[in-house]
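Deliverable D5.2: sample structural annotation.
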Amino acid sequence: MRVALGMDHGGMTIKESILDAIRELGHEALDLGAYELDPVDDYPDFAVLVGEAVQSGRAERGIAVCGSGVGVTMAANKLRGIRACLCHDTYSAAQGVTHDDMNVLCLGGRIIGPELAKALVRAYLTAEFDGGERFRRRVNKVNALD
């Protein structure tokens, strides 16, 4: 699977851990930046890059990171077809996919450390959408809000 990764300066402390987790699972990372620490970069720019990569099919899933994770979540969810969720526990990171077909995981680089980031990425990328009728019905209702 190809996973789009984008973050502003607030996510740089966990970037390498996220990339490691993606690669350790045998997936390909599409690194959309930031490539260097720039304290004046803006989280919406990176959330849009991740969301557009998922929308276009260049990536099957995405991960967006800012300082708290809140900003990238709000920005990514503005894009049609993106179901982005802020998850700082492994249960939500997996269930967001299993029940809600989440396609962008959002994280807060100032909230979690490198090891939890890896665990969250593993939970997210190993989960698969259940596809059951009740889950499809609910996702269809969410998608109709676009």
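Annotation notes: The radius of gyration is 14 Å. The chain has a mean pLDDT of 98.
The annotation will be released with the project's public dataset once the embargo ends.
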